[in-house]
Description:
By secondary structure, the protein is of the alpha/beta class. It has helices at residues 79-91, 110-120, 136-145, 158-169, 185-193, 229-238, 252-258, 304-310, 312-322, 333-336, 349-354; strands at residues 2-5, 9-14, 19-24, 30-34, 50-54, 96-100, 124-129, 149-153, 174-180, 204-209, 244-247, 275-278, 283-285, 297-298. Strands 11-10-9-8-7-6-5-12-13-14 form a ten-stranded mixed sheet. Strands 1-2-3-4 form a four-stranded antiparallel sheet, with no helix packed on it.
Amino acid sequence: MVATSNYEIIVKRHRKQHYFTYFNRKSGFFARVEEKGYPEAFWSKDGPELLDISITNWCDKECSICYRNSSKKGEHIDLHDYEFLIEQAEEIGVLQVALGGGNPNQHPDFVKILEITREKYGIVPSYTTNGKGLTKKVLEASGKYCGAVAVSAYAPYDEMKTALETLNKFHIKTNVHFVLSSESIETAMKWLKNLPRFLKDINAVIFLNYKPVGKYKNRNLLLSRSQALESFFSLISNEKFPFKIGFDSCCISGLVTHLNVNPSFYEACEAGRFSAFISEEMKMYPCSFMIELAEGIDLGSYKIIDIWQKGEMFNQIRENLKKNDCSSNCHYFSNCLGGCPSFKEINLCNIIRSGVNS
């Protein structure tokens, strides 16, 4: 792998896999471009492009729907352990880290974590907050070091609204993370049809497909059970908004069938292909939602790159994505890769093919 950069632009050539990555650390623009005559890379053998790192499982909101079971008893990652991870991340060419929790900005060393990540190792941090703990020091550091800050949207939304207003005052690029379920989709459509004031100054709304994990495993909340799913995608397709609209890759099986978008803008599940998750316990997984499915691989015993290249869990998820059940009879497969390989029930393709709710 060869990397060149000036202050903001990073260009990396992955010689053995015949593709380039382009990343603008200021704007967040990212592109993966294969060399002429070569296929698109299925996964990065050089290492992940992005690491999702839980720096704490502490949270005083203790929401009933938290997929991480975060609480006031949650533990923080040690600052030295975090730097141990980021040093490895820099060595293997990680471009960005998404800091999560718990509520990451309430980690006692949060400002130092942002500073180390960006200033010492040149990696762009972002984080998702529940809206609490946005002190002046946290906000100033966020503006200086972060690519963006995301605020989780949970009813009654008061703290979200206050957080959005505060982040806007500090001129911080801000996104809203909205979990789409059969219950919340009506609220999402209401907001999109009649834009509330608190959404008008944000950068993007990112919709996340509900997964039945953590504290509140309720399969009645699966997005595929919503009668409004088709109307929601139609609204997204036909309306214009003053902010960007995005989706997590867990929505891919719905996006490829409902949205008329150039396939080059789609990204199927990146878990174990271009991204990985590390818990506050220093254990590595392909995806944060797999934490209930398997024991993570201990980073006290193995390096990030060794787990990435040789870890059984990582190789298995790649094989599952390559050889999905629908690979032989669905023309969307090359873009969708069969949707989520770990939680089949969240996929939206069955409802689309049958035309009825499951």
